[in-house]
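A.,

Following up on our hallway conversation. Structure tokens first:
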């Protein structure tokens, strides 16, 4: 029996790197966003509400990040009937809105990113840019 498992953890520097990459992408699209980064346990590690973003997107961005970190899947891919049940079963802590992506390293979930305040497609695009930058960053051996 194995009593322990190895774990890779997202650092605050990694979370800030993701936040910066997402902010840059949002500025390039001219879409101010709320951006949330959580670790694998759904603990908020970094957050920004860019000037001009929607106040209510604070919650949706955070919920998107939490959902992606919990499931290891992008948000927005669940059938509408199951999405309502998911939200009800988790007291609204999980969402099916586009814009949440898991952060995976060597097949292990290390966290999630959630973007909110644009259209779902804009939110997802910005999340993808940030995750791609993060993956390139750790691929260069900068994860340490």
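Then the amino acids I'd put at each of the 144 positions:
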């Amino acid at each position: 029996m194995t009593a322990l498992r190895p774990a890779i953890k997202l650092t605050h520097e990694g979370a800030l790197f993701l936040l910066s990459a997402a902010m840059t992408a949002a500025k390039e699209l001219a879409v101010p966003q709320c951006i949330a980064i959580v670790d694998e346990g759904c603990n908020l590690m970094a957050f920004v509400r860019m000037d001009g973003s929607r106040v209510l997107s604070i919650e949706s961005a955070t919920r998107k990040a939490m959902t992606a970190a919990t499931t290891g899947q992008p948000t927005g891919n669940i059938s509408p009937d199951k999405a309502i049940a998911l939200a009800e079963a988790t007291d609204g802590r999980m969402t099916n809105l586009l814009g949440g992506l898991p952060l995976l390293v060597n097949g292990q979930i290390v966290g999630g990113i959630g973007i909110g305040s644009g259209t779902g497609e804009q939110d997802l695009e910005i999340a993808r840019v940030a995750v791609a930058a993060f993956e390139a960053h750790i691929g260069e051996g900068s994860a340490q």
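Residues 120-139 form the longest helix (20 residues). Curious whether your intuition agrees with the design.

B.
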